[in-house]
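Subject: complex prediction, re-run

Hi both,

The earlier run crashed halfway through, so I resubmitted it with identical inputs.
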Amino acid sequence: MTGHAIDPAMLAKAETLTEALPYLQRYAGKTFVVKYGGHAMGDAALARDFAADIVLLKAVGINPVVVHGGGPQIGAMLKRVGVESDFIDGLRVTTKETAEIAEMVLSGAINKELVGWINAAGGRAVGISGKDGGFVKAAKLRRTKKDPDSNIERIIDLGFVGEPETVDRTIIDTISASGMIPVIAPIGVGEDGHTYNINADTMAGAVAAALGAARLLLLTDVAGVLDKSGQLLTDLDPAKIAALQDDGTISGGMIPKLETCVAAVQAKVDAAVILDGRVPHAMLIEMFTNSGAGTLIHK
Ligand SMILES: Nc1ncnc2c1ncn2[C@@H]1O[C@H](COP(=O)(O)OP(=O)(O)O)[C@@H](O)[C@H]1O
Ligand SMILES: CC(=O)N[C@@H](CCC(=O)OP(=O)(O)O)C(=O)O
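This time it finished cleanly. Structure:
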């Protein structure tokens, strides 16, 4: 007896699904915190793919929690209203006025746009910031930096830049348990009543730690962490990351990103991955195929 001729393209599709099976089984019921960076958000087709991937995760029994950035979009709005802003080691120096604009762009425009994309893809997204239900209590970020000439640690004042001090998971659990997808803007409120601008990677790491997430996925605009010659580093641990920081291989936005990954894996998060958000369906390739993508960070 001879078998039917099978279209190789159809067979490849079926093989992709069977390749995904062990991953689907491993991840069912687990929480994945996905940070969608402002740079990766620029392209509408990519945003649509991202939203569809998030809905797919929810549909196969994974619990996705989205945290978004919006640095370039805040920058564009500040420019429009004629407000200057600087970055120190990847963090925006934030005056009271900058914090107001950051909140407007993050909690208003971007959060609702992403909620809209996910809902259009068939999901039910609920947009919140750290202020909703008071779920993120922020504190002013205390940062010091060694002066290379004198070797003295100096205090860096970033203004209203916050770090999550406590994350109450109740509101996230309530949204997730009712079949909806939380979409979180990185804004928090302090005991002092001030609004704090929180780096989105830092926020995602704090949320992932509070939830004991299986994975923290950070989607950005590079292939992953690159070495000095531009080659992708596929596997890092805290010791290797400290060395990359000391020899200046990582700079700018990659600094808070990797600090977040280290803090997350040292908390209860199994692993963190830095992924190229410019690649369509990067998340699915990383999670459900044998190839993986980007840089994996583990303990
Ligand atoms: N070693 C490195 N490997 C990759 N990217 C790096 C490295 N060092 C610095 N970067 C910078 O970090 C950027 C990613 O951080 P960021 O701009 O904050 O992205 P996002 O908006 O996605 O959070 C890259 O575009 C790159 O310019
Ligand atoms: C303190 C700080 O730097 N906050 C960030 C918040 C947005 C962000 O982190 O967005 P991306 O992930 O797109 O970079 C900012 O003001 O740009």
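The chain has a mean pLDDT of 93.

- K.
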